[in-house]
């Protein structure tokens, strides 16, 4: 069972449309589709300049703490066409990207990553541009 943060997510209109299109094209699992549709219904849309700095979006470096292992991981989220493993970048539409986008520092999310349920807390968000 996937369960995203209960908090309202905040997205730019461009990211909102990108995720909506991604879901519409069935690029996610049925479980993810359900969660994402619910999140999009409750999402607050803002312009890029009005997006709070502590919210995960495209071109962001995000530090998350795995609540089970207490280990921290850092992800750099970029546009789908700019994601490159060798650059250690993840697409905003990857599993981790979809799990984190729109959430802010302090939010805790529950998400399935390849059948493994993880509970992650966002501890830092850094804009790259």
Q: Can you describe this structure in just a few lines?
A:
The protein is of the alpha/beta class and 129 residues long.
Task: Give a description of the structure.
The protein has 129 residues and is an alpha/beta fold. It has a single domain (10-127), classed as Chitinase A, domain 3. The chain is 24% helix and 32% strand. The chain has three helices and seven strands; from the N terminus they run E-H-H-E-E-E-E-H-E-E. The strands form two sheets. A five-stranded mixed sheet has the order 5-4-3-7-6. A two-stranded parallel ribbon has the order 1-2. Strand 3 and strand 4 form a beta hairpin. It is globular. The chain starts with 9 loop residues before the first strand and ends with a strand. The mean pLDDT is 90.
Pairing-aware structural class of the strands and helices?
alpha/beta
What is the number of strand segments? 7
CATH class: Alpha Beta
Which range best describes the helical content: under 10%, 10-25%, 25-40%, 40-55%, 55-70% or over 70%? Answer: 10-25%
Reading side by side through the largest sheet, how are the strands ordered?
A: 5-4-3-7-6
- How many structural domains? 1
By CATH, the architecture is named: Roll
Q: Report how far the terminal alpha carbons are from each other.
A: 35 Å
What value does the Rg take, in angstroms?
A: 13 Å
The coarse silhouette is globular
**Biggest β-sheet, characterized?**
5 strands, mixed
Q: Overall mean pLDDT score?
A: 90
Could you state the CATH homologous superfamily?
Transcription elongation factor, GreA/GreB, C-terminal domain
- Stretches where pLDDT is under 50 for at least 5 consecutive residues are none
The ordered H/E elements are: EHHEEEEHEE
Strand content: 25-35%
User: What's the CATH topology name?
Assistant: Chitinase A, domain 3
Count of discrete alpha- or pi-helical segments spanning 4 or more residues: 3
């Amino acid at each position: 069972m996937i369960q995203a943060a209960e908090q309202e997510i905040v997205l730019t209109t461009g990211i909102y449309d990108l995720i909506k299109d991604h879901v519409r094209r069935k690029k996610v699992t049925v479980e993810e589709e359900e969660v994402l549709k619910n999140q999009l219904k409750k999402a607050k849309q803002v312009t890029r300049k009005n997006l709070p700095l502590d919210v995960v979006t495209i071109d962001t470096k995000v530090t998350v703490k795995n609540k089970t292992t207490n280990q921290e991981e850092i992800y750099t989220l970029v546009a789908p066409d700019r994601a490159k493993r060798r650059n250690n970048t993840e697409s905003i539409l990857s599993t981790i990207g979809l799990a984190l986008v729109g959430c802010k520092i302090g939010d805790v999310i529950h998400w399935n990553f390849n059948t493994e349920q993880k509970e992650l807390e966002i501890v830092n968000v850094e804009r790259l541009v």
